[in-house]
Amino acid sequence: MIIAVDGPAASGKGTLAEGLARHYRLPHLDTGLLYRAVGLAVADREDGPDFEPAAIAAAQGLDPAQLADRDALTSAEAGVLASKVAVIGPVRAALFDFQRSFALQPGGAVLDGRDIGTKICPDADVKLFIQADSKARMERRARQLEKRGLVVDRYALYHQIEARDARDMLNPNGGFYKAADAHLLDTTLLDIEAALRAAIEIVDRTMALKAGDR
Ligand code: C5P
């Protein structure tokens, strides 16, 4: 079973994907980490003339060991860098095979990102598109950062999330929209447990319908 979970920044898709992976005992890949790792690898060239070729080379040479430093990868700065390398077509192409192979491992997988249901796994068994309003997403991300002992400027964070959403939505090489066959789950008013219960219900119902069709 392949489960695709897409949605904008801080929508709760990562936590939900992790919960689904635990529930169904499937491996999980947070595909945002790949773009974040590429972004961090070229941080010192940000907005410079060789940013693009350097990002392409970093994506082509990405080593899974670069996904280990979660604190650096999940920083707000890494998120901004990720969204800048994510608009580069050859970067996306270079990361495609890694994501596709992960999805196709025996037994299945849960992947979360922006284009899983549209580009990486258009054939996924279940697709979820997670949304939540921008203020709720900002507040969640702020609490995550505060838990790590960081001081958060909520106003700046809100604008950073909005700017990242805008860049993502306009990404010409993206595919950052809800697939026609994806189930929409709005988590604005749901806590983690309620959102996970709703997601499990959607997965179970979809799989039962598929089994009935066979
Ligand atoms: O999901 P996360 O916030 O970690 O993603 C960071 C950035 O990586 C996104 O803003 C987006 O630009 C990019 N991304 C992408 N395709 C994916 C996952 C993330 O372009 N499948």
Automatic annotation (TrEMBL):
What biological process terms from GO does the record include? Answer: pyrimidine nucleotide metabolic process
Residues reported in the UniProt entry to bind ATP: 7-15
Q: Where in the cell is it found?
A: Cytoplasm
This one is known as: Cytidylate kinase
Cross-referenced InterPro entries, in alphabetical order?
A: Cytidylate_kin, Cytidylate_kinase_dom, P-loop_NTPase
Q: What keywords appear on the UniProt entry?
A: ATP-binding, Cytoplasm, Kinase, Nucleotide-binding, Transferase
Annotated Cytidylate kinase domain residues: 3-203
Cite the EC number.
Answer: 2.7.4.25
The superkingdom of the source organism is Bacteria
First-level EC class? transferase
